[in-house]
Design a protein that fits this description.
Shape of chain B: globular
Largest interface: A-B, 74 and 83 residues
Number of helices of chain A: 9
Distance between the termini of chain A: 24 Å
Strand content of chain B: 15-25%
Number of domains of chain A: 2
Order of helices and strands of chain A: HHHHHHHHH
Number of strands of chain B: 18
CATH architecture of the domain at 1-45 and 107-156 and 236-327 and 501-568 in chain B: 3-Layer(bba) Sandwich
CATH topology of the domain at 1-45 and 107-156 and 236-327 and 501-568 in chain B: FAD/NAD(P)-binding domain
Radius of gyration of chain A: 23 Å
Structural class of chain A: mainly alpha
Structural class of chain B: alpha/beta
Helix content of chain B: 10-25%
Radius of gyration of chain B: 23 Å
Oligomer: heterodimer
Number of helices of chain B: 11
Helix content of chain A: 55-70%
């Protein structure tokens, strides 16, 4: 169970907060400190505002076709299950697209990796990854999802490196999202009057 | 040369640098009645706008990874308080062939205190008596008893939590109550207890009770992001506002000090600096100068302040400026503790740092190396961030429902251990001016020479063995595989990486072997003082900040007294 955020110590309006954020701090006090209540309110306000954004996403770096492939791979790496949504719901592809647009190394690793994946599928099944049957897709992913396969078949090396990189970034995107953090049942990032310590640790 | 403006105003003191040492000096000197002008190479800090405390990773499009993912797995992720960097564009430094050194430089009001670990450990009596104790290095010209009253004053003022333990290597201080243990800490503590290793509440400059107008910590674990309630200590939020309140304090930001100007009488009379915004040279005049630019920047400034009177640089007739450079010996490891995966979800955040730590415990026995180290450790169910699951992904590989479940079950089960040990100065480790390179302000840059000795490598090996013993004794799996050979044997960090570099303008009784006297006053120039960690004679297994604060306070008291007597 996730605890609900504590209620602010006393009632305070957004205007009060903004006022203390902009000038009250410096002028009113020797210390450049924001009153605890204002800080608490601001944190909640930020969270609420950020959560409200939405809309249709236009890829920044990848072509529409490549982005579709990226989305599919991300969702395969971290799929939805009974507890939570998957990588797409967590915004992982957007996050990866943004970083890739800004970083030539990522462009090479991911853009090149996806080309490699399609070429490999073309060689094996005569069509790119997205057009392959589900069992064909699983076959090729099972090859590149484990480093040991590159030891027995060095031609898989590039694919294995690509997939390991994408897996890390997908995990980043997933577990830093609102649903990913909820999935982990992380409790915190809040205003506590006291630190409660550790519940009993189960014996080994 | 660019046109030089000569403002008529003469301040009592010019302080160079706004971090722990500079902030402390500015507070004490202004409260003592002197006018102080402070030069800071970076911009001003605005906590209310600059801090990202309580943001979630998804509040930022890059989730903390920075543009192009370049801050992924860096200490300085997007959420950190404005602080410093390993590389600063336009301000290079160089390394002698075969040397590896990393120089973290802060360019911001408050310096490194904006995001330091708040670890506030006193040096022990033996730390001031190195040579008398084991024949290596040198003794300080002051003793623990000389500094103890200042440790008391600093702790009482900034607020440090901890407990009285009577451990010889880790003197007790004036402490606020410590926070309760986290789960990870109860496991390590239990393991240490049965191994005969001290594991005690840590000593951090974070308020567990309100103090001097600052509210107590609210346990969000985000000290490094900057604290909007200033419940942790920083120069920018705790010291400088006090100086400001006296009305005798002038802060000049974007001011890169270039040279200390000496008059015909051999006394320092002004500081030349580059105003970064206009790229012009400016000059500020003062009756006394306090250098607190960080150990290596302070040495650089002295070495670059050459004149007919001081051809080898200012305060350097001994030739020691830049020498005796040390950093902490660092080595780290990770343990996997499966029992943590069974923990019920709970708030694990706590303060922004460890609630428990391991002080040096083998001080009364013969070891395979001289001096000692302490161990910091952390881990558990903290807010996830980019890179948190790299290890789980690499370990389990695969994809799909199994990977998702593996990540979940590994969440919060890793504990990282970091040793912080004492390096003994050696003749191959120092910094000097690179004759061939200047920065974008035209200032000659530092060149670093670095070499660990066998003593430090044996210490790193001992750290690894201890980490492994603690992890395995607790039923965990020791994950780290540190090699005994190669460039970094036993995982020893490169020089500078622990960001405890110091000793470059050391104090001492003799002007022949030291640059500063026992008051951190230059032997050669009586109105010149150093208030950062450059004066330190040893670099014991305690983080330097608390001692910087205490020593700066002591130096400032002396400066005040001398100013009142008209001796400067």
């Amino acid at each position: 169970m996730r605890r609900s955020p504590p209620t602010p110590v006393k009632s305070i309006s957004r205007r009060d907060v903004l006022k203390s954020l902009t000038m009250g701090v410096v002028a009113g006090s020797v210390l450049r400190v924001i009153p605890a209540e204002a800080a608490e309110f601001a944190h909640q306000a930020i969270a609420t505002e950020k959560a409200a954004s939405g809309g249709v996403y236009t890829p920044k770096y990848f072509s529409a076709q490549q982005y579709k492939l990226l989305q599919t791979l991300c969702q395969t790496i971290i799929p939805p299950d009974e507890r939570s949504g998957g990588a797409i719901e967590a915004g992982a592809p957007q996050f990866i697209d943004l970083l890739t647009q800004e970083n030539p190394d990522y462009q090479l690793m991911l853009g090149g990796g996806m080309m490699w994946l399609d070429s490999t599928c073309n060689d094996r099944y005569g069509k790119p990854y997205l057009d392959c049957a589900p069992d064909q897709q699983s076959q090729v992913l099972d090859l590149i999802a484990f480093r040991k396969n590159a030891k027995t078949d060095p031609s898989l090396g590039a694919g294995v490196e690509f997939f390991a990189f994408l897996r890390n970034l997908t995990a980043d995107g997933y577990f830093t999202s609102e649903i990913g953090i909820k999935d982990l049942q992380y409790i915190g990032n809040t205003y506590m009057k006291d630190f409660l310590g550790c519940p009993p640790v189960p014996e080994m | 040369m660019p046109e030089i403006n000569r403002p008529p105003k003469v301040y009592d003191v010019c302080v160079i640098g706004s971090g722990a040492g500079g902030g402390q000096a500015a507070k004490v000197l202004t409260e003592g009645g002197l006018s102080v002008v402070m030069l800071e190479a970076g911009p001003d800090l605005h906590p209310e706008q600059d801090f990202k405390e309580h943001f979630w990773p998804y509040d930022l499009p890059h989730r903390g990874a920075g543009v192009g993912g370049r801050l992924r797995n860096e200490i300085n992720d997007e959420f950190m308080a404005p602080n410093g960097a390993w590389e600063i564009e336009g301000e290079p430094y160089t390394m002698a062939p075969g040397s590896r050194f990393h120089w973290f430089r802060s360019r911001i009001v408050g310096g490194r205190t904006n995001h330091w670990g708040r670890i506030a450990l006193r040096f022990a009596p033996a730390d001031f008596k190195a040579r008398s104790t084991d024949g290596m290095g040198d003794d300080w010209p002051i003793t623990y008893d000389d500094l103890a009253p200042y440790y008391d004053k600093v702790e009482s003022y900034i607020g440090v939590f901890g407990t009285r333990e009577n451990i010889v290597s880790a003197p007790d201080g004036v402490f606020l109550p410590p926070p309760k243990m986290r789960c990870t800490e109860t496991i390590v503590k239990k393991s240490c207890d049965s191994l005969g290793i001290h594991c005690i509440p840590s000593r951090l400059a974070i308020l567990t009770k309100p103090l001097n107008g600052r509210p107590a910590c609210h346990y969000c674990a985000q000290c490094g992001r900057g604290c909007v309630t200033a419940s942790n200590f920083s120069s920018s939020q705790v010291l400088l506002p006090r100086a400001q309140a006296t009305g005798r304090f002038t802060l000049i930001t974007g001011a890169m000090a270039r040279e200390i100007v000496v008059g015909k009488d051999g006394k320092a009379e002004a500081v030349s600096y580059i105003d970064k915004k206009t790229r012009t040279e400016q000059r500020v005049r003062a009756r006394a100068i306090v250098l607190a630019a960080s150990a290596c920047e302070t040495a650089r400034l002295l070495l670059n302040s050459k004149s007919t009177l001081f051809p080898d640089g200012l305060a350097n007739s001994s030739g020691v400026v830049g020498r005796y450079l040390t950093d902490s010996v660092g080595s780290s490891a990770t343990g996997y503790f499966p029992q943590l995966s069974k923990m019920p979800p709970h708030n694990h955040d706590g303060v922004g740092g460890m609630h428990m730590y391991i002080p040096w415990w083998k001080y009364n026995r013969k070891n395979e190396f001289l001096r000692g180290y302490h161990i910091e450790f952390d881990g558990g169910r903290f807010m996830p961030g980019v890179g948190t699951f790299d290890y789980a992904c690499d370990l389990h590989e695969g994809y799909g429902a199994a990977l998702k479940q593996n990540c979940r079950s590994m969440y919060g089960t890793l504990i990282g251990f970091e040793g912080r040990g004492e390096m003994i100065p050696n003749e191959h480790t120092y910094c000097d001016i690179d004759p061939a390179v200047v920065d974008e302000w035209g200032i000659p840059v530092l060149r670093f020479h670095w070499q660990w000795t066998d003593n430090e490598i044996r210490m790193a090996r001992d750290m690894q063995e201890t980490f492994q013993a603690i992890v395995e004794n607790a039923g965990g799996t020791f994950i780290t595989k540190a090699r005994s050979d190669g460039a970094r044997p036993y995982g020893i960090t490169d020089g500078g990486v622990i960001i405890h570099e110091l000793g470059t303008v050391r104090m001492g009784a003799s002007p022949k072997t030291s640059a500063l006297n026992s008051h951190c006053q230059a032997h050669d120039v009586k109105n010149l003082f150093v208030a950062d960690a450059a004066p330190f004679v040893t670099n014991p297994d305690k983080n330097p900040t608390l001692t910087i604060l205490a020593l700066s306070w002591r130096t400032s008291d002396y400066l005040l007294e001398q100013a009142k007597k008209g001796n400067l």
